[in-house]
Design brief:
Elements (H helix, E strand, L loop, with lengths): L2 H10 L4 H12 L2 H18 L8 H20 L12 H9 L10 H19 L3 H12 L4 H8 L3 H23 L1
Helix pairs in contact: 2-3, 2-4, 2-7, 3-4, 4-8, 6-9, 7-9, 8-9
Length: 180
């Protein structure tokens, strides 16, 4: 590789390593596995850096991370098939109004409950099927637009919206189950 390629890699990829790791962590469900995915993703990005045309570097790198994560999961984990129902009008209303997370946390007791709730939410996110978890993480944790998620995941925007709705509905259901 040339010095120019090394400089481009440092400019384009290195600032996004943490974000790529977080995506890999959510997709694989394991810190150790995410490290393996990131190592391979960085190697692929380094090899492809000269071919990267100016554009959305974040989407380009996260696409590489996503693709490596899926390849890694195919090699190391069995697949699961999960069917979910579409959003009900009641659940849609809860999502639009903030649902379970719309109250303030002013007291120490409330902070402790919020911490417990956060752990429950993380567990619920980790149990989502991979394709739903990926979409939810890219939207809610990485703040990507529907269009950016569609490009990264190589799916239509309508599918992104559908997956996001299903992921949110599933999370609402799982969180309600833990309340009881």
């Amino acid at each position: 590789m040339t010095t120019l390629a090394k400089a481009r890699f440092a400019q384009i990829v290195l600032p996004r390593i943490d974000e790529g790791y977080r995506l890999a962590r959510w997709l694989t469900g394991s810190a150790t596995d995410a490290e393996d995915v990131m190592q391979e993703a960085c190697i692929r990005a380094y090899r492809a850096i000269e071919g990267f045309a100016e554009g959305n570097a974040r989407a380009w790198f996260l696409t590489i991370v996503r693709n490596v994560a899926y390849s890694w999961l195919q090699r190391h984990r069995p697949g699961k098939l999960v069917f979910l129902e579409d959003l009900s009008p009641v659940a849609l209303q809860e999502i639009e109004t903030g649902g379970l997370m719309n109250s303030a946390v002013p007291t120490p007791e409330d902070l402790l409950l919020a911490k417990q709730r956060s752990a429950e939410l993380q567990k619920a996110v980790e149990t989502l099927p991979l394709h739903l978890r990926e979409t939810l993480v890219l939207r809610e944790f990485h703040g990507l637009s529907y269009r950016e998620i569609a490009v990264i995941s190589d799916i239509p925007i309508g599918t992104v919206m559908s997956r996001l709705a299903k992921a949110r509905q599933s999370l609402l259901s799982r969180m309600k189950e833990t309340e009881q």
